[in-house]
Write a structure and sequence with these properties.
With 466 residues, the chain is α/β, with parallel strands linked by helices. The chain has helices spanning 3-27, 32-36, 44-51, 68-79, 82-95, 100-111, 129-148, 168-180, 193-206, 234-248, 263-278, 296-305, 320-330, 345-351, 373-382, 388-406, 410-418, and strands spanning 54-55, 117-123, 157-163, 184-188, 210-212, 227-229, 253-258, 282-288, 310-314, 336-338, 359-362, 424-426, 429-431, 444-450, 458-462. A 7-stranded mixed beta sheet has the order 8-7-9-10-11-14-15, with helices on one face. The protein has a 6-stranded mixed beta sheet with strand order 1-3-2-4-5-6, sandwiched between helices. A two-stranded antiparallel ribbon has the order 12-13. β10 (336-338), α14 (345-351) and β11 (359-362) form a beta-alpha-beta unit.
């Protein structure tokens, strides 16, 4: 090669070297999960993607409009300027009182670099944002309470938030990052049953306890001694709905609307069919909401022709819109039943008059036990009512806190939670786990009535209040 050609080559080599050094500096951001992921087989862009999904306060994960105070608080947190972060995050909470991410970051900033025990929340912030925020409110409330009371035997609780998008592949990568970070002693998550099952293998191999506040599939029962839940399984919900149908409505014949692509939906459908059969009834026909050619109108006509007396909506979140088409087309002709995924403001907003009288099985309702401290404290903290997802996430966090008091190690937490004598007090009463990992608790039947508590004109209220 001539000397003339060597100069451009040297320059190009230098530029590549500088680029690589710059890229390395970019990857080594002040995020404790970046270094932990360096041994994985993913590409640098994948590793950066996972590190950007997990935050103790260094970055904002929620979507939507963010106040300048919150942005400044998070920037100060990332810089290690905790006093400045505290001041800005306090200001941000005054602007938006019901933002759980801000409260969690504020409590983490108050801890700063002092000794703490850490847990993580794995939630679908960008795909199921409302449900994710509901879950985070329960976690934030429990963290706020324990830290205000002096911590866990004097040690405050720190919470990391992870955005798993309710995606099985992403949640596995997040779970790997959480397992590798030895500071994390427990996880609250995941949201759906499919995603919980996907992450469960990683948590089990890493011997890190995860408690789901919302996954109800019967497949989770006995899956692993490291996977628990504070929400009752679909067996409990199906049994309550079947009993209501046969004994209260005095109806024997049902049709089930479900999503064949959802583990939760399949689980609830299967358990409902079994429970109805045991009660002396029968499910005459099934309709798969995930089918591209699904028609609410044709399905209801077919159900009526077959003599169906009750419609059971075993839908999940992704097929809720199609299930609500069924509600509208039915026009209150046949009684409606539903699983906990139906318990959402969207059902009230879209179903409206046609949804009146629908009965839904959920783990907890704010008006079930008005004398409980949790409803009062949650209203004061968030400025409004919370739902069962917040209560179950609060209970999951309270369970982890109780286990940390017993033995603040990963092994100690797992052993405490699965011991026969474990109990803790949560939003819905005493928290105990069966050997299967399931919550030892009943479900609550609620019905849709006219009302203004939701500010929609319709409300879910406990069935016994009617």
């Amino acid at each position: 090669m001539s000397q003339k050609n060597e100069i451009p080559v040297l320059i190009l080599t230098l530029l590549i070297a500088l680029g690589l050094l710059g890229g390395g500096a970019w990857l080594l951001k002040d995020n404790i999960f970046s270094q932990k992921e360096a041994t994985t087989t993913e590409s640098p862009s994948d590793r950066q993607s996972i590190s950007q999904r997990i935050s103790f306060g260094e970055q904002i994960l929620t979507t939507g409009t963010t106040s300048p105070a919150k942005r400044e608080g998070v920037k100060a947190f990332a810089d290690g300027s905790y006093d400045k972060a505290i001041a800005n995050l306090q200001a941000a909470l005054k602007i938006k009182k019901n933002d759980p991410e801000t409260l969690i970051f504020l409590n983490n900033a108050r801890i700063g670099s002092a000794k703490s025990y850490s847990i993580a929340a794995s939630v679908p912030l960008t795909t199921e944002s409302n449900s994710a925020l509901e879950i985070l409110r329960g976690i934030a409330q429990a963290q706020n309470e324990i830290n205000a009371a002096g911590g866990i035997k004097g040690v405050p609780l720190k919470v990391a938030i992870a955005n798993d998008e309710n995606n099985p592949e992403i949640v596995q990568q997040i779970a790997k990052a959480l397992v590798k970070n030895q500071q994390v002693l427990g996880v609250v998550g995941s949201y759906s049953s499919d995603v919980t099952l996907a992450a469960a293998k990683v948590y089990t191999e890493g011997k890190l306890v995860a408690i789901s506040p919302t996954s109800t599939s019967v497949k989770i029962s006995k899956f692993s001694p490291y996977i628990l839940r504070t929400v009752p399984s679909d067996f409990m919900a199906a049994r309550a709905l079947a009993n209501y149908m046969v004994n209260k409505l005095q109806k024997q014949k049902a049709a089930v609307f479900f999503n064949s692509q959802s583990n939760y939906s399949l689980s609830l459908k299967s358990e409902f069919i079994s429970s109805v059969s045991l009660q002396g009834g029968q499910v005459l026909t099934e309709f798969d909401l995930s089918q591209a050619n699904f028609s609410a109108d044709k399905s209801i006509k077919k159900a009526r022709q077959q003599g169906v007396e009750v419609l059971m909506l075993a839908t999940n979140t992704s097929t809720l819109d199609k299930a609500l088409q069924v509600v509208r087309v039915n026009e209150k002709q046949l009684p409606l039943l539903g699983g906990d995924s139906v318990y959402t403001p969207k059902t009230l907003e879209i179903g409206r008059e046609q949804a009146l009288g629908m009965v839904v099985a959920i783990p907890w309702h704010i008006n079930t036990n008005p004398s409980s401290e949790f409803p009062t404290e949650s209203r004061q903290l968030w400025g409004g009512d919370v739902n069962w997802r917040t209560a179950m996430a609060y209970d999951a966090t309270k369970a982890l806190i109780a286990a940390l008091k017993s033995n603040p190690t990963r092994m100690g937490v797992q052993q405490a939670l699965t011991s026969g004598g474990f109990s803790a007090t949560g939003a819905s009463g005493t928290i105990r786990f069966l050997p299967s990992g399931d919550r030892n608790a009943p479900v609550q039947l609620v019905t849709i009535v006219s009302g203004n508590r939701s500010r929609i004109g319709y409300d879910f209220e406990p069935l016994k209040s009617r």
